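User: Can you recover a sequence for this backbone? Please restate the input before giving your answer.

Assistant: Of course. Working from this structure:
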């Protein structure tokens, strides 16, 4: 079985996707699995090649990956791709490469948001992780919070709006924020991750508010504004499985800025999201047993509610003074699979990868038990009706 690791794509989290993919590729090869690296450039070009599983290829300054023509000489054979994806090398004697199971390693748009999952579904290809609907919901911060509210899961008060709303009447939106929400507030592009273009606005600073919204709208056409949680502890719980998910230990993220930003997540001291910044990550989180149990159970509840599968991460905001818990975002494909948190929970990377492949096969086999074809006489009746109409004439 060839496992295709898909990564890159046109997303602001493109580089983070490369890091996640290289971890997965190395881990799968360590298990003796056959791996097919499938890299999609920022411009949407698909590239295949063994060397794409080497991080040095992406960090070398002398030549961009997309300039290596050999990796881009494959095309997807639509005729052969049923229950698999078959890529053929251009030319009369071009060899073919088959992907039997997909392991997406995308972050953000065009990959983590349900788009690539839809393609896999169309080909009937088993794949790791959340499905189309769960991925789309989880990548929409506003829709996620609406589902929380509908199911009485505590979340911070919020409003959201679209770019057209802002262009039509920005003063109305600013007034709504000022009147309906408590300051300070957070501005978030709805579909982005990695804290990109997220900002905290304090002290009823309406000029700063407008500026930060404009920045968010540069990256997304839908913006979320929500109340901030003071005396904050940022808590993360990973969940994996299909029908019977299991929750990890809780991670507490330490940061001195107004939010757990991109620098803290990926740059400072090696990056807290990769588990390397030991001074920025505390596992297990410093919470009492009852609160820990409540958060883990809520994470699993949310996972099932949104119909996640394979793996996901659920973030929480905890007010240390009032002891309130607020469900925050769902990440349908945690960066580097959050393998450091699973390791702390007793599951090493090799075991994590095998479990995720097993969940993908289980989900695929269950879907195959369903009938998607319905025999109908509609077309025959339509043809008969046409013939009758001609005879009458």
């Amino acid at each position: 079985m060839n496992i295709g690791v898909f990564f890159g794509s046109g997303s602001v989290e493109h580089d983070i996707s490369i890091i996640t993919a290289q971890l997965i590729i190395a881990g799968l090869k360590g298990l003796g699995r056959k791996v097919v690296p499938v890299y999609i450039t920022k411009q949407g070009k698909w590239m295949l090649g063994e060397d794409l599983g080497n991080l040095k290829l992406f960090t070398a300054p002398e030549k961009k990956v997309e300039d290596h023509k050999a990796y881009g000489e494959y095309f997807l054979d639509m005729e052969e791709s049923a229950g698999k994806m078959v890529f053929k090398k251009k030319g009369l004697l071009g060899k073919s490469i088959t992907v039997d199971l997909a392991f997406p390693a995308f972050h953000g748009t065009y990959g983590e948001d349900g788009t690539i999952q839809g393609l896999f579904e169309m080909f009937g290809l088993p794949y790791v992780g959340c499905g189309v609907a769960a991925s789309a919901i989880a990548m929409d911060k506003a829709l996620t919070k609406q589902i929380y509210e509908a199911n009485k899961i505590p979340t911070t008060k919020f409003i959201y709006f679209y770019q057209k709303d802002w262009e039509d009447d920005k003063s109305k939106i600013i007034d709504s924020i000022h009147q309906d929400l408590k300051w300070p507030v957070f501005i978030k592009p709805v579909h982005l991750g990695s804290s990109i273009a997220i900002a905290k606005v304090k002290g009823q600073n309406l000029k700063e508010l407008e500026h930060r919204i404009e920045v968010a709208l540069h990256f997304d056409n839908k913006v979320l504004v929500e109340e901030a949680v003071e005396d904050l502890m940022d808590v993360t719980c990973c969940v994996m499985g299909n029908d019977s998910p299991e929750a990890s230990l809780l991670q507490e993220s330490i940061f001195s800025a107004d939010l757990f930003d991109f620098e803290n997540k990926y740059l400072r001291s090696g990056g807290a999201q990769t588990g390397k910044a030991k001074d920025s990550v505390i596992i297990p989180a410093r919470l009492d047993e009852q609160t820990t149990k409540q958060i883990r159970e809520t994470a699993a509840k949310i996972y099932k509610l949104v119909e996640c599968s394979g793996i996901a991460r659920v973030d929480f905001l905890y007010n240390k003074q009032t002891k309130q818990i607020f469900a925050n975002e769902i990440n349908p494909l945690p960066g580097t699979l959050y393998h450091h948190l699973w390791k702390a929970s007793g599951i090493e990377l090799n075991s994590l990868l095998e479990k995720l492949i097993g969940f993908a096969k289980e989900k695929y086999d269950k879907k195959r038990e369903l009938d998607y074809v319905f025999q109908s006489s509609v077309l025959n009746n339509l043809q008969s009706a046409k013939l009758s109409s001609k005879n009458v004439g």
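That completes the design. The domain at 232-368 is CATH 3.30.470.20 (D-amino Acid Aminotransferase; Chain A, domain 1).
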